[in-house]
Amino acid sequence: MTAIATDDVRERQARLEQVVEDLLAEAKRQGASAAEATAGAGAGLETRVRLGAVETLEDTRSNGLGITVYMGNHKGSASTSDLGPAAVRDTVAAACAIASHTQEDPCAGLAALQRMATQLPELDLFHPWELQIEAAIDLALECEEAARAADARIVNSEGAAVTSHTGVHVYGNSHGFIGSYPSSRHGLSCAVVGREDASMQRDYWWSSARCAGDLKSAATVGRRAGERTIARLGARRISTREAPVLFDARIAAGLMRHLVHAISGSSLYRRESFLLDHLGQKIFPDFVRIREEPLLPRGLGSAPFDDDGVATAPKDLVADGVLHSYLLDTYSARRLGMETTGNAGGVHNLRIELGALDRDALLRELGTGLLVTELMGYGINPVTGDYSRGTAGFWVEGGEIRFPVEGVTIAGNLKRMFQGLLAVVNDCDFPGSTRTGSWLIDRMTIAGE
Predict the structure, then answer these.
(1) What contacts 361, CB < 8 A, 6 or more positions away?
(2) Would the pLDDT of 323 be above 80?
(3) Which of 8-12, 247-251, 432-436 is predicted least confidently?
(4) Which H or E element spans position 401?
(5) Residue range 169-173: mean pLDDT, rounded
(6) Rg of the chain over CA atoms, in angstroms?
(7) Distance between CA atoms of 112 and 331, rounded to whole angstroms?
(8) pLDDT over 80 at 264, yes or no
């Protein structure tokens, strides 16, 4: 495999840092009043098998750089995959030409010098996986075989995959800031199809981590995919009603992402958010605390600085149910008359405080309602918060799962759903940068037969 090895990463970082310095110097030479640049290099391997045979094998390498120049308040950007001196000159020239034609924007420009990350903490993000192609194929085959062996009703496979990627990221600007760090990300995934009489279903599972040693085993991932598929066989529709809805942890992470979108700067200054002007207001019940943890060691969303070079730091987005912080980059903060929150490029490692109850205990508390394990379509209005999604899952009665459900739609309003959150389950068992347990919402409309 052509991963960036530990011995090579310092050399690549130094090379890319020099390229960024060259970009910034060239931008100044060509008349830019300010500039910022990024450079990156990556290497990856992906192996996919299906029905016991290798279907895809990709070994990749990539390079790239980008430059944004400011001519006063005029902005221009350009990028290239060529790291040579001629490409540096040409890319800067292209960015400057674009800036000369763009409309003046008083909010354009670099983040303030005092907000630059002065110290870069070691976040343990780089763990190259010395994985040979034959070993990757064997892992993928083991994963798929475990899924297919989970039950005789597994009749087909969409395949199993092993992925590994390493890279180096560098950002610099004309304040004199240059920061860089290497990172890695590895994964296992599998999806299979089951059949029972006329019912056919598919489901999947996966594992992802910075370090290959933190991945779930291939057999565990495959077996989980098979078990989830079998559990959905025999799904039926239910009649239209209002009932409590329990969003599986993996699905609840999507509700967290809707919150992120609603409190992100671009949504706010465009006035396209159902949480516009809600800073300092209660949007969840008292027990809810949602926190960003950008400096989490080995975190899949960890970063020592954001895309503006601003130092990242942990913070509560929601505490005691109250919205305490928006998610702003430098530009959106200026548009709103506020300060950047260090979120250029997005949120880093979102966490919600988990409750004391496990899944079984909360099902008993739920009594009768719908457990949602899959959503289809995108029926969300970001301005009003109106929410309508096709759904599959399980019907719960007497605190126990009775049968799988499909072909229904759930509807509500995100603002009302947040306020109607009754509990967050202590059952987070999936990988990702957004970590949550299952969410129990007090009531939603379920449209069925």
Answers:
(1) none
(2) yes
(3) 8-12
(4) strand 400-413
(5) 98
(6) 24
(7) 11
(8) yes
| Biggest alpha carbon–alpha carbon distance for the chain | 73
Q: Tell me how far apart the alpha carbons of residues 395 and 400 are, in angstroms, rounded to a whole number.
A: 8
- Per-residue pLDDT for 2 more than 60? no
In this prediction, residue 328 has a pLDDT band, given cuts at 50, 70 and 90, of: very high
Q: Backbone dihedral region of 443: left (phi > 0), alpha (psi from -120 to 50 degrees) or beta? A: beta
Q: Which two tokens stand for residue 256?
A: 């967290």
The string of pLDDT tens digits covering residues 59-75 is 999 999 999 999 999 99
Q: Is the dihedral of CA 432, 437, 441, 447 positive or negative?
A: positive
Give residue for tokens 């296992």: 188
CB 98 within 8 A of CB 131: no
Mean pLDDT of 25-40: 97
Alpha-carbon dihedral sign for residues 260, 262, 268, 272: positive
Rounded Cα distance, 50 and 58, in Å: 15
- Please list, in sequence order, all residues whose beta carbon lies within 8 angstroms of the beta carbon of residue 263, skipping any fewer than 6 positions away: 273, 275, 317, 323, 325, 326, 327
Can you tell me the distance from the alpha carbon of 252 to that of 435, in angstroms, rounded to the nearest whole number? 9
Four-residue CA torsion sign, 45, 50, 52, 54:
negative
The CA-CA-CA angle for residues 382, 388, 393, to 5°, reads 130
Amino acid in the structure at residue 324: H
Return the residue matching tokens 């860089």: 180
Location of each CATH 3.30.2290.10 domain in the chain: 6-231
- Residue 248 phi/psi, 5-degree rounding, is -50, 150
- Regarding the domain delimited by 6-231, which CATH topology (the fold level of the hierarchy) does it fall under? PmbA/TldD fold (3.30.2290)
Order of strands across the sheet that contains 322-323: 322-323, 315-319, 290-292, 350-352, 434-435
Residues 316, 325: Cα–Cα separation, whole Å: 7
Tokens (6 digits) for 262: 């609603």
CB 168 within 8 A of CB 40: yes
Residue with tokens 């002065």: 118
Distance CA 372, CA 246 (A): 6
User: How far from each other are the two terminal CA atoms of the chain, in whole angstroms?
Assistant: 53
Whole-number pLDDT of residue 3? 59
Strand 241-247, strand 369-380: pairing: parallel
